[in-house]
Specification:
Blueprint: E1 4-10, E2 15-18, E3 24-33, E4 43-51, H1 52-61, E5 67-80, E6 86-99
Parallel strand pairs: 4-6
Antiparallel strand pairs: 1-3, 1-5, 2-3, 3-4, 5-6
């Protein structure tokens, strides 16, 4: 079984890219505190990768400092850097990312993202079949 769950804060703004085949991929790093450590400021820095719609949402709404909960799987891979050296990396490939920073605190939405729709007036155009009941019509 390969399942990992972390909670921590983004160390920098996410990087949203598109593959040659048109898939969205977003990567960011999450700082996870070591609660068992005697040193107060010890943390692990976990690279996270998201794909498709989840990548779009992370790239659009996450900013440095936001608290997130990430669940997914651990993946290791190798690649050759620009100097031809073989590099190894371990990443958390996310299946789910929960945005834990309350709206309006710690940044919120990126400045280049479109604003979310206003809640008031969202359903004004929809017709309602709801007819309020008076006290005599109540079954209890």
């Amino acid at each position: 079984m390969n399942k990992a769950m972390i909670i921590g804060n983004l160390t920098r703004d996410p990087e949203l890219r598109t593959t040659q085949s048109g898939l969205s991929v977003c990567s960011f790093t999450v700082a996870v505190g070591r609660s068992f450590s005697k040193e107060k400021d010890e943390a692990d820095f976990i690279p996270v990768v998201t794909w498709r719609g989840l990548a779009d949402n992370c790239g659009k709404y996450l900013v440095k400092g936001n608290k997130v909960a990430v669940s997914g799987r651990i993946q290791t891979r190798t690649y050759d850097d620009k100097d031809g050296n073989r590099r190894y990396t371990t990443e958390l490939i996310a299946d789910d990312v929960e945005f834990l920073t309350p709206k309006g605190q710690g940044g919120g939405q990126r400045s280049d993202a479109p604003p979310p729709p206003k809640e008031s007036g969202l359903f004004e155009d929809e017709k309602s079949d709801f007819e309020p009941l008076d006290d005599e019509q109540m079954p209890f």
